Amino acid sequence: MNNLxxxxxxxxAALSPKEAREYFRKGQVLPTAGISAGYAxxxxxxxxxxxxxxxxxxxxxxxxxxxxxxxxxxxxVSSELFAGGDIRTDVPQYMVYENGVKVAEPTDLSExxxxxxxxxxxxxxxxxxxxxIDSGISVAHIEQGVNVPMYKTTLRSxxxxxxxxxxxxxxxxxxxxxxADAVRITSRYPAVHGAPVHIGNPEELGIxxxxxxxxxxxxxxxxxxVPVFWACGVTPQAAVMESKPTLAIGHAPGHMLITDIKDSQxxxx
Amino acid sequence: MNNLxxxxxxxxAALSPKEAREYFRKGQVLPTAGISAGYAxxxxxxxxxxxxxxxxxxxxxxxxxxxxxxxxxxxxVSSELFAGGDIRTDVPQYMVYENGVKVAEPTDLSExxxxxxxxxxxxxxxxxxxxxIDSGISVAHIEQGVNVPMYKTTLRSxxxxxxxxxxxxxxxxxxxxxxADAVRITSRYPAVHGAPVHIGNPEELGIxxxxxxxxxxxxxxxxxxVPVFWACGVTPQAAVMESKPTLAIGHAPGHMLITDIKDSQxxxx
Lengths: 269, 269
Known about the structure:
- The structure is a homodimer.
- Chain A is an alpha+beta fold.
- Chain A has helices at 9-14, 17-25, 49-61, 126-134, 140-143, 179-186, 234-242, and strands spanning 39-48, 68-72, 94-98, 101-104, 117-123, 150-156, 166-175, 198-199, 225-231, 248-251, 257-262.
- In chain A, strands 1, 2, 3, 4, 5, 10 and 11 form a 7-stranded antiparallel beta sheet that branches. A 4-stranded antiparallel beta sheet of chain A has the order 6-7-9-8.
- Chains A, B: One of its GO terms (molecular function) is lyase activity.
């Protein structure tokens, strides 16, 4: 088996999801952007069964920030979303939290796994970014080779049981002439955050300085571009952490689960 | 307060949801079709907390048959969906099941209520029927003054924990020239079962005789009409009953929760 880092961008894009997951299962670590082009990548949220109802209810009440693509019931480690895979090994890198505090960033969950763990697989905006680019709308953080900028807002998510917290948004600066197109295109992907939640006026979200994101990287904003905000998959993670469960596991930022589902399957209507 | 049965159809249609719920809270019993026109009516499913995750996961996996409009957490009796109301009294009539067996059909849940009960409010196709009629597509069971015919199919719902069972469908015969319109119109209401799951060929669903529905009433099928099948809100009830929880409560057929939400709010895009 090659070293994944030695593959060029075209070779990474051409990997099947199954091939990509095999690299990660062997312990190789690399951000997943650009790997297995055309296949949906997903956020991971693993919690003990006692918190699982609250997480699922949080998702039901906050569907834009927490679009659930699949759930592995207590102790299950595989799913039709990633056939033949194992959720404990097939993500490049994980973040393990105990009582709300990060304790490890392993590449394998074997030593942390418990049979009462429930896994939530949550949609990610990588999917609609391809659709934006295909329609001639450039995506600043991809062009600039950085992570998407994300901000905590003063909007509150709807509470569900022990789960509460701020809505986190991602921001993409879009030329004013293309904002309507960006709305139209992303609204066709409700399973991966869908239409923007806010366009322009970051102050109304409590964001005072776009150059200082709470997560990810700042991007240069081109002259005449409007900041457009989408609900972000970090939102449920923030709420889980606030509830301080005995154990919670997510993916390392940018190191996503690569699923067998084609991006196009999440497009409606 | 008048007797609800003494109101004519126009007077019933003109009642606000709050006024209608007040009649039911006083113990009056009447099917809710035609009451508070333009407001969404909903199915009810109340289960102990220990089954709540399975029910919500079942809904997540079977969104066409089990579209969740809202959830009242353990012990909660009111919600913004029916402001100022009480779920224990505001539905005209309930069905109480113990260990999967119906034990009562009360008009008030006070003597059955427990603080560990979680209430699921589930979308109902009454909403899209108004839209069909407004577009000139007649709805046979409404024209014929009977309940919609519903059938158990050989399709299985996706299992979630203890919840499993057949998909139940409702059937509306539609003139061949209007079937495409019926698909287009109902697909705009995903929160109330959305587009049909099957058009024509009832045998493929294991339905051998349309004149013998498993629930509701048979309808006369006009010459040249095609049977069109939609996922039905009875599906989750059937799955709950199969799991035989110590206690489960639904609404009596046709005796729905009248919400404060306008039908039009469930229309997309």
